[in-house]
Specification:
The protein is α+β, with helices and mostly antiparallel strands and 135 residues long. The protein has four helices and five strands, in the order βαβαβααββ. The chain has a five-stranded mixed β-sheet. The protein is elongated, with a radius of gyration of 17 Å. It starts with a strand and ends with a strand. It binds nickel (II) ion. Nickel (II) ion binds next to β2.
Amino acid sequence: MKVKVSRKAHFNAAHRLYNPDWDMEKNDAIFGLCNNPNYHGHNYELIVGVTGEIDPETGFVMDMKVLKSLIKKEVEMALDHKNLNVEVPEFKNVNPTAENIAIVIWQKLRPFIKQEHELEITLYETPRNFVTFSG
Ligand code: NI
């Protein structure tokens, strides 16, 4: 029987959404306030889900202490209180939308999750807008 275990986390980050191939007018039309050249911040809420069989020896799918420290080390240290466009290399040429941030988080965590486990990232950019990526 497969069970999904999830851990919530949180980080603050600044970003600007724009396409360098477009002029300011088109960027404003598509991205609105998110195109502010001086950046703006979000309080991101993250849910990391790991799905797999229960280990008969522990009764766990995954040790949540391990998941907690993985998220801290690989995600929070990399993104918390950062300007995503300027300070996070993954977004040098990638627009830091919630979609792309979720993919980057998945890619950062995937190598540390057991092969046989599924990894699902849910990222809230606002309390009402969220994206999900599971590879
Ligand atoms: Ni924004």
